Amino acid sequence: MKISRYKKKKLIIPLFLGILVLTLAVSWISNSLFKKETIKSAKEPIIVEIEKGDNIFKVAKKLKEKGLIKSELFFILKAFKTGTYNKIKAGEYAFYPSQSVEEVLTFFKEGKIYLHKITIPEGSTIWQIADILEKNKICKKEEFLSLAENPSVAESFKLPGPTLEGYLYPDTYFFHKDTPPQVVIQTMIENFWKHWGKFREVAEKQKKPLKKVIILASIVEKEAYYPEEKPIIAAVYLNRLKKGMPLQADPTINYALRDFRRLTYKDYYSVKSPYNTYLEDGLPPTPICNPGEESIKAVLFPAKVPYLYFVAKGDGSHYFSKTYKEHLEAIKKIRNNKESTGNSNSTLISEKKDIEKENL
């Protein structure tokens, strides 16, 4: 039996309207189900870790547990619809409550893995860097140090070695969780070479080898509290080296001890190490930390001063002296000040003075 054109139109119009209503209803329900359970500050990302082997069902469950979705089923259907269900890469993801489900799925599809911001302070040692990396779950401390202390690794980067101490440039970095230590090291060393490029020509003109510059810069980094004193401290050590005097730099002993605490009188004599610059002449075998740009600059552009000695005042600054006599007067002044304020460290200053006298 034939259906008239008029009757066909009567059937099509309700069908079309029905489909439209159904589509709108599904859309409304979907948006309602994907709506976040709580409204949080946009400054507080929600971290979701997707492990290797997690399927779309496991992912949906994790998102539900974090309060990012209301319905696991609808999320899964959306993932299948967009073709994302089998394209989710393992790693940590940071989602903000304001993000839509489509944005969440796009993050997964594009592998926008969360990067941890870590800051390596100027003056950090390789051991301290290893601690920072492990604390932030970037890589294992032992794995990092096994490379950082390996002479062949230093050689592969064309560094003086035998370790990477001094050449892991202190800066702010962004790494994802479980970054291979090789990648971390390469990133830091490439950053070092980038900054060293500013000074390479100057160092070559002054005939100062890379290793010497970085060793001295590392000592300056550990000695100086105020940036303006760095060129003066660098000048003191360069002047002492020219005269064949021992450096007598406390931080070198601290490095030998792997502890940057206040030294005792016994430490100056008892620490038998090539890093003890009270007992050993010349430079220590390696840098004692990873210096920043200002400390490197201070070694290449030292202050034009005749100083050979300096002593800490107690506020982070120093008294600088040209002669040993002036140095003793500075020590006496500090000792008297400390005694008047009840500071027991005056004895150590006096005993340290005797050590310096013996090394003249």
Structure commentary:
With 360 residues, the chain is mainly alpha-helical. It folds into three domains: 33-110, 2-Layer Sandwich (Dna Ligase, domain 1), CATH 3.30.1490.480; 118-196, no CATH class; 208-358, no CATH class. The protein is built from 16 helices and six strands. It has helices spanning 5-34, 56-65, 72-82, 101-110, 126-135, 141-148, 151-156, 181-196, 200-205, 210-223, 230-242, 250-257, 265-270, 293-300, 324-340, 346-358; strands at 46-50, 91-95, 115-119, 172-176, 309-312, 318-321. The strands form three sheets. Strands 1-2 form a two-stranded antiparallel ribbon. A hairpin with a 5-residue loop joins strand 5 and strand 6 (318-321). Helix 11 packs across helix 14 and helix 15 (324-340) packs antiparallel against helix 16 (346-358). The radius of gyration is 32 Å and the shape is elongated. Mean pLDDT is 87; it is low at 33-41 and 343-351.
In short, what is this structure?
Residues 350-360 have a biased composition (Basic and acidic residues). With 360 residues, this protein is mainly α.
